[in-house]
Structures are given as C-alpha cells and as structure tokens.
Design brief:
- The protein is mainly alpha-helical and 80 residues long.
- The chain has one domain.
- It has two helices and no strands.
- The longest helix has 43 residues.
- The N and C termini lie far apart (64 Å).
C-alpha cells in the first residue's frame, strides 16, 4: 500500500513538473510520470521488504560494537 501511494505521488509530481516547468507535451509528461512512479514504487517495495532484517541486524551490530568498545584497550601511559 505504501509503495502505491509513494509511486502515485512521485509520478504525479513528475508529470506536473514536466508539463509546467519543462513545457513538454502531455504524452511525454505522462511517460515520464509513469516511469518515475513505477521506479519509486519498486524502490519502496524493495526497501520495505528488507527493512526489518536490516534494522535488527544493524541494532545487533551496534550493541556488539558498543559492548566491545567499552573496555580499556591499552595500559595508561607510565603504568607497568
């Protein structure tokens, strides 16, 4: 559902930009809108598919990194 909304919004925005700012014909503006809308929808679908595994792995990696970096790495200067 989210990819449909994002794709429609991006496609409509591209169509309006091409029609008004670039002064393109209706046909070429529609093709540009459909192409960018479909690509945006596909990108959102791909990211949302892998969002939770990436978020969980990122959180686990952050916890591991912070847990390891808390300890002292070397002796202080002048200590024996």
């Amino acid at each position: 559902m989210l990819s449909l909304l994002v794709g429609t919004a991006v496609g409509a925005g591209t169509f309006l930009w091409a029609k008004n700012k670039r002064r393109e014909s209706t046909g070429s503006s529609a093709v540009a809108g459909v192409a960018t809308g479909a690509a945006s929808a596909a990108a959102v679908a791909l990211v949302s598919t892998f969002f939770w595994p990436i978020a969980v792995l990122g959180a686990a990696g952050t916890v591991y990194y912070l847990g390891r970096s808390r300890g002292q790495k070397a002796l202080k200067p002048g200590s024996e």
